[in-house]
Amino acid sequence: MSPEFKLLGTGAGPGVPSFYCDCIACREARKKPQRARTRSGALIDTGNERILVDASPDLRSQLIKEQIDSLDYLFITHWHYDHFGGIGDLEFYIKLKRKHPVKLFLPSSAVEDFQAAYPFMMDVFELECWDYEQSYTFSDVKLTVLPANHSIQTGGLLLEAGQRIAYFTDTSGLPELTEQRIKGVDTLICDATFHGENWYPDSHMTIEEAIQLGEKIKAGHTILTHLAMHYSAPTTVQQIEEKLHSYPKVSLAFDGLTLKL
């Protein structure tokens, strides 16, 4: 099979719908479950190896939904709960089925936090700290970690095989050097947390800002992800898609979206 990049989850921290929320986005997602969003995460499937990118608190349900029954590596982009909260879901898979450790790539700033949060899993992971501009090759897929603008140490991914895909779920714009590295990518998958006012301009982007970033780096296609839908002006998938009619190179991510690499 050709290498694939699958979005397991495309929502921000609260998910859509949220149990406590009755905004128009949550009502839409309850009425049409295909428009629901679990917390952000992705999977690189080379055909020979599977690399999980982030472990959201929804990980178990994501893996069951996508019929994923094995993993070879775990790559954590940054240490925020909506990106690491599902790590514990892998304990019994590794101990009972795989029976040897999974390599876990972490930002160096997260190692102590990982050890404090998951002391019972120290024997199931082999830890390795990633560095910016470091590249890894998995079968025919090259993965390079690039700096993002977020509140803590955060890596975005440049994936290169037949296609070049840039994946930045949590970022406020991009550092200039990162912009240069991903110039002209086939696909930019990008943080578009907010609709309306950006409550966290140092950490996230609005839908409009994500569209502008895609235009700036001349991406062939921009896919909006890490969508809160609740903030700051709640909006529905239908409303956003109507707005995107004016942007033929831009589309909305959805859980389960699969791209060929």
TrEMBL record:
SMART domains linked: Lactamase_B
Name the species this protein comes from. Answer: Desulfitobacterium metallireducens DSM 15288
Q: Which Pfam families match?
A: Lactamase_B_2
**InterPro entries with a match to the protein in the record:** Metallo-B-lactamas, RibonucZ/Hydroxyglut_hydro
Write down what this protein is called: Beta-lactamase
Give the SUPFAM superfamilies listed for this entry: Metallo-hydrolase/oxidoreductase
Q: Which residues form the Metallo-beta-lactamase domain?
A: 38-221
